[in-house]
Design a protein that fits this description.
about 110 residues, two-stranded antiparallel sheet, 4 helices, about 15% strand
Length: about 110
């Protein structure tokens, strides 16, 4: 888990983030800005870390946001990190979590 996860969770649960996120998603018609599929998560282009978690120019600035589907979001993160692990994905907090298998995958 990331060092700033407690601060990130607090931010992602804040009224300011929820309001910004919802308005931003509505402004781009709920579609992934890269591939046009249904969107899933608002991505911070400049990633949030301990140094900028309280900087609204990074966290709440629409110029730093991008609405992505799960595949595009995972590609963004896996493409920028050399340690790719199969069977995991990022959740809405940016944490790695196991990918659930569907009945058809078993």
């Amino acid at each position: 888990m990331r060092e700033y996860s407690a601060a990130a969770k607090k931010f992602y649960n804040s009224k300011a983030w929820r309001k910004t996120r919802d308005a931003y998603i509505g402004s781009i018609d709920y579609m992934c800005e890269r591939c046009g599929d249904a969107g899933y998560i608002v991505h911070h282009i400049e990633h949030i870390d301990n140094n900028n978690i309280n900087d609204v120019n990074v966290t709440l600035n629409w110029d730093n946001l991008e609405y992505l589907c799960l595949d595009c979001h995972n590609t963004e993160h896996f493409a920028t990190h050399s340690n790719v692990v199969e069977g995991v994905s990022f959740n809405q907090y940016g944490e790695l979590v196991p990918i659930s298998k569907t009945k058809n995958d078993k």
